[in-house]
Amino acid sequence: MQYGVTPVGIVRSCFKEKFAIPRQPQLAPAARGVLELLPPFDGGEAVAGLEQVSHVWLLFLFHQALEDKPRLKVRPPRLGGNKSMGVFATRATHRPNGIGQSVVRLEGVEPGRLLLSGIDLLDGTPVLDIKPYVPYADSVPYAHNAMADAAPACIGVSWAERALPQARAHGERLGEPLVALIEQCLAQDPRPAYQVPPAERVYGVRFWDVQVRWRYPTPQTIEVIEVCREA
Ligand code: SAM
């Protein structure tokens, strides 16, 4: 038995690679993107009324984690990467049908596109469906999850002297809250939980069109050392 799905749109995101994307939506409110709708959904009819909604559910494909053979057990990074769990007990990207779901803020509805923030989606992510968030039905006040009851703890982010002006200047050029994006994403501590890097090791990631580099002066603090545009 097989069913086919067709994307209704593609996300253009601040995140150009998987590394340093927050593990869930809402953790980085400055993470913005645009969902470009595809025909026949790009003419306005399909999103009529959506401007009355603050958040939407996006059902999407983990297009850079698709696998032929389904996994029954996965090792979620949140549990340190060394504890194996049933795939359905986790929100890992390796899933039987590669389907992800995120609640994101809807900043605007424009012809053929939706403006989004608080996203955890890679650039180019194909979106399969869009549904309005319904607070009374989608929020369960007494719900619990013993494996992930609270948002991951944040670590401190500081700036080397030249890095902050660089980030401000690129943010202005891009018209994006780049300083906040860097601080919010790095505060999530992107390194795998089991990795304790030497202080001199430099990490890097691309947000929008800039390369962000940082190091860990202590195991629980990050210093942003450079924000530069690269060809
Ligand atoms: N909120 C979604 C969910 O629960 O289904 C995604 C959770 S998943 C743990 C979040 C991670 O998915 C991000 O940190 C990022 O590295 C990865 N990711 C985002 N978009 C992706 C894509 N299109 N393909 C592969 N991995 C992706």
How does this structure look, described?
- With 231 residues, the chain is mainly beta.
- It has two domains: 9-138, Beta Barrel (Elongation Factor Tu (Ef-tu), domain 3), CATH 2.40.30.70; 156-229, YaeB-like fold (2-Layer Sandwich).
- Helix content is 11%, strand content 32%.
- It is built from three helices and twelve strands, in the order ββββββββαβααβββ.
- The chain has helices at 135-138, 163-174, 178-186, and strands spanning 9-13, 32-37, 55-61, 73-74, 85-86, 99-110, 113-117, 126-132, 156-159, 203-207, 210-218, 221-229.
- The strands form three sheets. Strands 1-2-7-6-3-8 form a six-stranded antiparallel beta barrel. It has a four-stranded mixed β-sheet with strand order 9-12-11-10. The chain has a two-stranded antiparallel sheet with strand order 4-5.
- It starts with 8 loop residues before the first strand and ends with a strand.
- The structure holds S-adenosylmethionine (SAM).
- S-adenosylmethionine binds at residues 18, 21, 23-25, 62-65, 91, 93, 100-102, 120-122, 125.
- Residues 18, 21, 23-25, 62-65, 91, 93, 100-102, 120-122, 125 line the site of S-adenosylmethionine.
